[in-house]
Amino acid sequence: MMLIPANFVLQPLHNGEGNYYVGHNCPHCGEILYRSHSAGDEELADHAKEHAELDPDPPADLDELSKIEL
């Protein structure tokens, strides 16, 4: 299980099919550097889902996303 580097910016994302996860963005340019689920399969909070953006490059298989302590 990985921990998030302190300088990354978390961005709630969805893939357009009702699946939510998190993008880890560069704090300087905003590029999504990688994507993850929370460890323990916890769902994103409702307020995060409300602000989730459509992922321009969603993963083909959500089971391949890293698990991260949020």
Describe this structure in words.
The protein is 7% helix and 39% strand. A hairpin with a 6-residue loop joins β3 and β4. It has one helix and six strands, in the order ββββαββ. Strands 1-6-4-3-2-5 form a six-stranded mixed beta sheet, with no helix packed on it. With 70 residues, the protein is mainly β. The chain has one helix at residues 46-50, and strands spanning 2-3, 9-14, 20-25, 32-38, 53-54, 66-69.
Distance between the termini: 11 Å
**Sheet with most strands: strand arrangement:** 1-6-4-3-2-5
The count of strands amounts to: 6
User: What is the residue-averaged pLDDT?
Assistant: 86
The largest sheet is: 6 strands, mixed
Biased composition (Basic and acidic residues): 45-54
Keywords: Plasmid
Region (Disordered): 41-70
Topology:
Layout: E1 2-3, E2 9-14, E3 20-25, E4 32-38, H1 46-50, E5 53-54, E6 66-69
Parallel strand pairs: 1-6, 2-5, 4-6
Antiparallel strand pairs: 2-3, 3-4
Question: Outline of this structure?
Answer:
Keywords: Plasmid. This protein is mostly beta strands and 70 residues long.
List keywords for this structure.
7% helix; 70 residues; 6-stranded mixed β-sheet; mainly beta; 1 helix
